[in-house]
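PROTEIN DESIGN WORKSHEET
SECTION A - STRUCTURE
LENGTH: 283
C-ALPHA CELLS:
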C-alpha cells in the first residue's frame, strides 16, 4: 500500500525539527494530520520558513493557545477523534497543560502518545539539542559544526516508527499506549560505527581503504565507494591498475585527469559506485 496509514488521525504538538519531520513522514504514509502550534508559531517558521512549509505539506496547521481554557477545549476536541498524539516538550511542561500521558489517557484512552524528549526516563528534563547530543557521542570529531541535524532526523524516523508500533500495540491491548523517543539514544546509535572504529580516521571506512574515499577530479571532487570485492575488482580492471598497485596516490593521479561529470558518466557505464560531491539543493 502506498498509504498504509489512511484513516489514522494524528495530532501533533511538536515544534522545531524532530517532531515535524516525524509527522511529515506519517502524512506521506496517508495519516490525516492536524499540527497545533503556539500563537507565536514554531521557531522553524522564523529560522527556515521554506523548510517549515515543506514539513507541513498536506497537514492542517492550527494556532492554538494551550494555556487558555478555549485552547485546551479545542485540543480536547481534536484528541477525542485522534489515534496518535506527538509531543516534543519536557515532561513538566506537558504535566502543567494536562498533556502528560496519564492525563491524556484518562480523557482519551484510545490515543497513542509519542513523546520526543532529549534524554530518557528520569533525565527527560535535561535540556539539549542536536549539537549537544552529537558532541556527547563523538560525532563532531575535533569540533566542527555538523553539516546536518543527523540526530534530529534520525529521531524523527524513530518517532514515526514508534507511532506505527503504538498503533499495533493498541490493536492488541485495546487502548492507547505511550512510546518515548530519546534523542540522546539516537545520537548513541548514530555513533556506534565510530565507536567500533569502522569510520575512525584511517579505518576501513575512514580513509584506510583506497577504493572507498574522496578524490579530486579535474574540476571538483568525487566520492568513490567501490567497497565490495566485485566493485573493487571492476574498478581496477577498467582503470587498468594491478591489484598490488592499488593506493590512494595511484587513484588520485588517475581521477585528476578528467572532470567530475566525465567520471560520473564513466561510473554509470561501468556500474561503479561513484558520484560527484554536490551542494544540498532545495526541492
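SECTION B - SEQUENCE
RESIDUE ASSIGNMENT:
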Amino acid at each position: 500500500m502506498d498509504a498504509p496509514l489512511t484513516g489514522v488521525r494524528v495530532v501533533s504538538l511538536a515544534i522545531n525539527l524532530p517532531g515535524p519531520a516525524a509527522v511529515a513522514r506519517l502524512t506521506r504514509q496517508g495519516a490525516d494530520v492536524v499540527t497545533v502550534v503556539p500563537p507565536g508559531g514554531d521557531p522553524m517558521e522564523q529560522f527556515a520558513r521554506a523548510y517549515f512549509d515543506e514539513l507541513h505539506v498536506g497537514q492542517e496547521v492550527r494556532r492554538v493557545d494551550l494555556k487558555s481554557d478555549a485552547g485546551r477545549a479545542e485540543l480536547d476536541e481534536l484528541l477525542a477523534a485522534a489515534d496518535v498524539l506527538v509531543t516534543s516538550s519536557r515532561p513538566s511542561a506537558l504535566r502543567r497543560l494536562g498533556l502528560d500521558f496519564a492525563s491524556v489517557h484518562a480523557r482519551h484512552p484510545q490515543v497513542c502518545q509519542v513523546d520526543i524528549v532529549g534524554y530518557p526516563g528520569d533525565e527527560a528534563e535535561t535540556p539539549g539539542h542536536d549539537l549537544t547530543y552529537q558532541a556527547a557521542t563523538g560525532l563532531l570529531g575535533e569540533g566542527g559544526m555538523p553539516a546536518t541535524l543527523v540526530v534530529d532526523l534520525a529521531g524523527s524516523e524513530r518517532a514515526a516508527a514508534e507511532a506505527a508500533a503504538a498503533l499495533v500495540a493498541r490493536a492488541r491491548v485495546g487502548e492507547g499506549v505511550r512510546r518515548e523517543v530519546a534523542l540522546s539514544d539516537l545520537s548513541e546509535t548514530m555513533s556506534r560505527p565510530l565507536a567500533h572504529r569502522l569510520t575512525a580516521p584511517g579505518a576501513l571506512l575512514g580513509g584506510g581503504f583506497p577504493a572507498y574515499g574522496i578524490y579530486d577530479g579535474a574540476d571538483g571532487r568525487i566520492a568513490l565507494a567501490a567497497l565490495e570485492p566485485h566493485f573493487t575488482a571492476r574498478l581496477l580492471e577498467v582503470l587498468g591498475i594491478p591489484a598490488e598497485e592499488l593506493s590512494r596516490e595511484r587513484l588520485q593521479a588517475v581521477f585528476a585527469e578528467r572532470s567530475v561529470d566525465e567520471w560520473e558518466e564513466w561510473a554509470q557505464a561501468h556500474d561503479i559506485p561513484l558520484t560527484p560531491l554536490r551542494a544540498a539543493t532545495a526541492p
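SECTION C - NOTES
DSSP finds 13 helices and nine strands in the chain.
The two ends are 25 Å apart (CA to CA).
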